[in-house]
Write a structure and sequence with these properties.
Helix content is 21%, strand content 30%. It is of the alpha+beta class. The longest helix has 13 residues, at 32-44.
Length: 249
C-alpha cells in the first residue's frame, strides 16, 4: 500500500550538524535527517528519503519540525510511533504520525513558520542553560528592541539579514509578527514569517540585541534595510534558537 506519511518531530540539536544531510563525500558529521532516514529505511526494509519543512543550522533545536516521506507498506501507522521512538536517540522524538494526501509536500505547502529565541539575561552564566540559550550579562533596553522590531516587521527584502543572500532569487519575506517578552531573567524573541532565509532569524536576533544595547540608532535601521549600511555583526548563537511551529492550511 503506497502512502505519504507525515511525521512531526522534536529534537535537541546540540549533538547534530543541523537537520539536513550534507550529501558530501566522506561526510562524517551526523545530522537529524541522516539519523531518521537510516532508522526508517531499516524499520521499513526499503530506502527512504525524507522531505522536511526546512533545514535548521547546527545546534538549533526544534519543538515541532514537520516532515513527510513516501512508502509502500501494510504496517498500520498507529503501530510505528512507539517502536521508532524506542530506537531513536534520547535527543530526537517523534510526536505525531499520520497519513497525508499523496501530493502533500512539507516544504512547499508550509504557509508560515514560527521560531523562538531565548536569551539568558543574568549577571552569571548557567551551566544548565548553556546549550539552550544565549547568555548576555548586560541589561538590554526592551523599549529600543521593540522599536527596532516594529521597523522590520512586515513584507520587505531581508537581504541584509541573510547568509549567502546572492544565492536567492528573491529575499522578500513577510515577517508577520515579532514579539519580545522578558520573564524571570529570560528574554524571548518570537518570530513568525511566511518563510525564513538562511540565518535570517539569528541575524534578526543579533540586530535586536545591538539595538537594545544602544549600538544601533533608530535612524540607522532604514539604511540597514535599504542596504545603504551593512549589518556586519555575527548571527546570534544557534543554541538559543527553536523551531516552534510550522503552519499549513
Amino acid at each position: 500500500m503506497k502512502r505519504n506519511v507525515f511525521l512531526e518531530i522534536e529534537y535537541i540539536g546540540t549533538n547534530y550538524f543541523g537537520f539536513q544531510v550534507q550529501r558530501k563525500e566522506n561526510q562524517k558529521e551526523i545530522t537529524i535527517q541522516s539519523v531518521l532516514e537510516n532508522l526508517l529505511s531499516s524499520f521499513f526494509q526499503q530506502p527512504i528519503k525524507i522531505t522536511a519543512s526546512g533545514r535548521t543550522d547546527r545546534g538549533v533545536h526544534a519543538k515541532a519540525h514537520p516532515l513527510n516521506f513516501k512508502i509502500d507498506t501494510k504496517i498500520p501507522l498507529e503501530n510505528i510511533k512507539k517502536p521508532l521512538n524506542k530506537r531513536l536517540p534520547d535527543d530526537i522524538r517523534i510526536k505525531r504520525v499520520k497519513e497525508v494526501p499523496w501530493d502533500f509536500h512539507s516544504r512547499f505547502m508550509a504557509k508560515s513558520k514560527i521560531y523562538s529565541y531565548m536569551i539568558y539575561n543574568h549577571k552569571e552564566p548557567s551551566l544548565f542553560w548553556h546549550n539552550f540559550s544565549w547568555f548576555l550579562p548586560d541589561q538590554l533596553d526592551l523599549v529600543l528592541m521593540r522599536e527596532a522590531a516594529k521597523k522590520i516587521t512586515g513584507k520587505r527584502s531581508f537581504y541584509c539579514f541573510a547568509k549567502d543572500a546572492k544565492k536567492y532569487k528573491s529575499c522578500i519575506r513577510d515577517l508577520k509578527n515579532l514579539t519580545i517578552i522578558k520573564k524571570r531573567g529570560f528574554i524571548y524573541i518570537n518570530l513568525k514569517a511566511d518563510g525564513f532565509l538562511r540565518q535570517m532569524a539569528r541575524n534578526i536576533v543579533s540586530f535586536l540585541v545591538e539595538a537594545g544595547g544602544g549600538k544601533i540608532e533608530t535612524g540607522q535601521i532604514d539604511k540597514i534595510l535599504s542596504q545603504e549600511k551593512r549589518f556586519m555583526k555575527k548571527p546570534a548563537p544557534a543554541r538559543g534558537l527553536y523551531l516552534k511551529k510550522v503552519n499549513y492550511k
